[in-house]
């Protein structure tokens, strides 16, 4: 799994590439915890280039959303399409996160 | 069966009468293009205009009967779809030969023979199903599209006709085609439904304006009677053993084409289509064979289901079988009132070509979609690629095959013969050595998720499995192994076994260790966040949801999970 950060306006965009499984999920968790560290921060998580997400990945996303609530921050997802969207649907996660249709829309929603 | 969003009236739906009438009219317009074949055969036999007119009228009656038979929703005959016959080019060369040797009685006798043969073949289709996988069905459909497009171009350009097309014909064709496309893409409702009829009318108007439809055509129209009952030629049949081979090859080609057209109709009517329904295909081929037998019996040339009309139904979104009854009524009307039908018979070649070209594009794209719905490995790529290119070569470079030995020539008459037959043979050869059971051993200490996914990907392509099913299996395999290694502390390697047939994909994962929990209820968000146990329950829940059936067993210290996926 590869991670990259970008800052667009006041929004931190974290792009994930590759697989989010039990080996890589903790790394993503640390990055999200760090990004959501301050109060009222805006984070967009771009999942358009992930190949696989397991239950370990979903747990990290839930924890990140909880962290965002605690710090009055905002975590928005984008790039949730195709089979990844199917997995979100299957696990009952589609309604748990604000999900934008594109990166631009995500930046606007998060901002 | 779930109706796709681009279809306005599915096969079982009842559109308003005006929609049925409009749709039927444009279908008949497209069908009449092919009445040229009995005319050519009649001319070859030296028949006068009265006999040829009778051939056309009898063809219209057989077409009406064949259209209704094909659409029958119940019983042993008929695919149940709007998949009507037209006089076919498949029997043109053998029929011209028969007309030369023994006149029309020999044409009729040999046509009956071919029809009976196709009827007999229809009964043997079901057991041959493994040899006719979806990618080959897709190939046949794509070749139907190509063949329709090539016929359209030939008719438009006047290749092989009395007069070669000039710039006026090309203008007529361009206006006609552009009008059809514009009304299909940028309009809705009745205008989209009637896009072909509107395009044909625009073509007629330009043809009249540019003098392409002139005194000769109107004279033909004036010379026809208002009312005339067709005279069947019962009993005037002959048989010649030397013509058995070309007519038998024609029967096989007619079978393959009908199988392709019925497959297309099935797919167009069902958004969840995954494989051909051989029952419906078999009944459709039987109906097609009956139409040809009837054609020979009453005294006209052979019939075969029309790809162009399946494409037309797709383009307009009207697939209702009620249109078939409307078509039959119009055909019968034109059979006994020749002056009415003649408005279509004098159709300029440019208008007819544009209509067929329009319909052929839809068929071609459908074929591509059917082919690529399955994973294609190198073997299947060769089967599809070789057969497609061979078929294309026959269609586009017929002169290249003129020096072929006589015994092989019947295979080289059409892309619809060479393409499917080479695909079936290549498929049979490449099936050798494909095992339906595949195994993988996974070392928990050296877990390689990419290798695990590739295992499913590679064998899925070997089997020609559905892409969506393999994606689900890939997830279940990766997630189950990840979870077992993380939480069950397996002793020794994990054994994976994947078993496939056309209807089932079973994945068995076994290991020495405690069983994996596969809860039916999703753990709460708090459970998932609070402990790793919640995450494991989520994994088990998702594994259960993702497969069509799961079973977990534990015996003598060894656990096994079986994931079943319907295919």
Explain what you see.
The complex is a heterodimer of chains A (111) and B (567). In chain A, α1 runs parallel beside α2. Chain A has a single domain, classed as Transcription Regulator spoIIAA (2-Layer Sandwich). Helix content of chain A is 40%, strand content 32%. Chain A starts with a strand and ends with a helix. In chain B, the strands form 2 sheets. Chain B has a 5-stranded antiparallel β-sheet, with helices on one face. The longest helix of chain B has 31 residues. The radius of gyration of chain B is 28 Å and the shape is elongated. The interface between A and B is medium-sized, with 18 and 22 residues.
Give the gist of this structure.
The complex is a heterodimer of chains A (111) and B (567). Chain A has 4 helices and 5 strands.
Highlighted features:
heterodimer, A: 111 residues, alpha/beta, Transcription Regulator spoIIAA, five-stranded mixed sheet, 5 strands, globular, B: alpha+beta, Heat Shock Protein 90, 2 domains, 21 helices, 7 strands, 8% strand
Q: How many H/I helical runs of chain B?
A: 21
Number of strands of chain A: 5
* SSE string of chain B, helices as H and strands as E: HHHEHHHHHHHHEHHHHHHEHHEEHHEE
Q: Name the beta content range of chain B.
A: 5-15%
Task: Give the arrangement of secondary structure elements.
The complex is a heterodimer of chains A (111) and B (567).
Chain A: E1 2-8, E2 11-20, H1 25-35, E3 42-53, H2 55-70, E4 74-78, H3 82-90, E5 99-100, H4 103-110
Parallel strand pairs in A: 2-3, 3-4, 4-5
Antiparallel strand pairs in A: 1-2
Helix pairs in contact in A: 1-2
Chain B: H1 17-31, H2 36-44, H3 49-71, E1 85-87, H4 92-122, H5 134-157, H6 167-186, H7 189-193, H8 195-209, H9 215-223, H10 244-269, H11 278-298, E2 303-305, H12 307-316, H13 322-336, H14 338-345, H15 349-371, H16 378-396, H17 415-430, E3 437-442, H18 449-463, H19 467-487, E4 491-501, E5 504-512, H20 525-530, H21 532-546, E6 549-555, E7 558-566
Helix pairs in contact in B: 1-12, 1-13, 2-3, 2-4, 3-11, 3-13, 4-10, 4-11, 5-10, 5-15, 5-16, 5-17, 6-8, 6-15, 8-15, 10-11, 12-15, 13-14, 16-17, 18-19, 19-21
């Amino acid at each position: 799994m590869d991670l990259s950060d970008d800052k667009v306006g006041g929004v931190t965009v974290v792009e994930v590439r590759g697989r989010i499984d039990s080996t890589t999920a903790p790394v993503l968790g640390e990055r999200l915890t760090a990004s959501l560290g301050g109060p009222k921060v805006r984070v967009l998580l771009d999942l358009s280039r992930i190949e696989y997400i397991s239950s370990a990945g979903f747990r990290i996303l839930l924890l990140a959303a909880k962290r965002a609530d605690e710090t009055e921050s905002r975590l928005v997802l984008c790039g949730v399409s195709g089979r990844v969207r199917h997995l979100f649907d299957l696990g009952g996660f589609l309604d748990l996160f604000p999900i934008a249709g594109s990166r631009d829309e995500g930046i606007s929603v998060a901002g | 069966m779930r109706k796709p969003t681009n279809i306005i009236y599915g096969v079982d739906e009842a559109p308003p009468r005006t929609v049925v009438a409009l749709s039927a009219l444009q279908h008949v317009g497209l069908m009449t293009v092919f009445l040229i074949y009995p005319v050519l055969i009649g001319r070859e036999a030296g028949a006068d205009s009265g006999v040829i007119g009778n051939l056309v009228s009898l063809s219209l009656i057989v077409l009406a009967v064949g259209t209704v038979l094909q659409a029958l929703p119940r019983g042993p005959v008929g695919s149940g779809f709007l998949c009507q016959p037209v006089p076919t080019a498949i029997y043109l060369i053998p029929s011209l030969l028969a007309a030369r040797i023994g006149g029309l009685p020999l044409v009729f006798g040999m046509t009956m023979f071919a029809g009976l043969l196709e009827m007999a073949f229809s009964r043997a289709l079901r057991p041959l199903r493994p040899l006719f996988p979806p990618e080959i069905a897709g190939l046949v459909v794509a070749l139907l599209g190509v063949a329709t497009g090539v016929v359209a171009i030939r008719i438009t350009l006047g290749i092989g006709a009395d007069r070669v097309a000039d710039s006026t014909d090309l203008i007529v064709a361009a206006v006609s085609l552009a009008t059809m496309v514009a009304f299909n893409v940028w309009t809705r409702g009745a205008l989209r439904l009637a896009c072909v009829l509107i395009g044909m009318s625009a073509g007629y108007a330009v043809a009249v304006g540019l003098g392409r439809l002139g005194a000769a055509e109107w004279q033909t129209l004036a010379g026809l009677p208002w009312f005339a009952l067709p005279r069947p030629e019962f009993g005037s049949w002959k048989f010649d053993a030397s013509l058995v081979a070309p007519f038998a090859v024609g029967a096989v080609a007619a079978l393959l084409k009908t199988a392709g057209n019925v497959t297309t109709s099935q797919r167009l009517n069902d958004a969840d289509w995954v494989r051909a329904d051989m029952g419906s295909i078999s009944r459709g081929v039987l109906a097609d064979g009956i139409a040809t037998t009837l054609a020979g019996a009453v005294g006209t040339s052979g019939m075969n289901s029309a790809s162009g009309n399946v494409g037309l139904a797709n383009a307009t979104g009207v697939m209702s079988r009620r249109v078939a009854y409307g078509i039959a009524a119009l055909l019968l009307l034109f059979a006994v009132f020749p002056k009415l039908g003649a408005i279509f018979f004098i159709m300029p070649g440019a208008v007819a070509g544009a209509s067929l070209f329009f319909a052929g594009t839809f068929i071609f794209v459908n074929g591509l979609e059917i082919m690529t719905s399955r994973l294609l490995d190198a073997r299947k790529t060769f089967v599809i690629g070789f057969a497609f290119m061979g078929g294309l070569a026959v269609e586009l470079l017929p002169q290249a095959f003129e020096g072929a030995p006589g015994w092989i020539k019947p295979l080289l008459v059409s892309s619809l013969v060479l393409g499917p037959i080479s695909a079936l043979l290549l498929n049979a050869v490449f099936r050798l050595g494909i095992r339906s059971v595949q195994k993988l051993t996974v070392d928990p200490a050296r877990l390689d998720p990419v290798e695990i996914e590739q295992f499913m990907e590679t064998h899925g392509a070997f089997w020609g499995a559905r892409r969506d099913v393999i994606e689900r299996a890939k997830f279940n395999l990766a997630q189950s192994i990840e979870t077992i290694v993380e939480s069950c502390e397996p002793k020794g390697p994990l054994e994976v076994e994947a078993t496939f047939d056309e209807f089932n994909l079973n994945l068995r994962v076994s290991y020495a260790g405690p069983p994996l929990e596969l809860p039916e209820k999703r753990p709460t968000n708090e459970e998932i966040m609070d402990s790793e146990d919640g995450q494991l329950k989520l994994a088990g829940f998702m594994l259960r949801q993702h497969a069509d059936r799961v079973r977990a067993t534990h015996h003598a210290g060894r656990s096994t999970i079986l994931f079943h996926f319907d295919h």
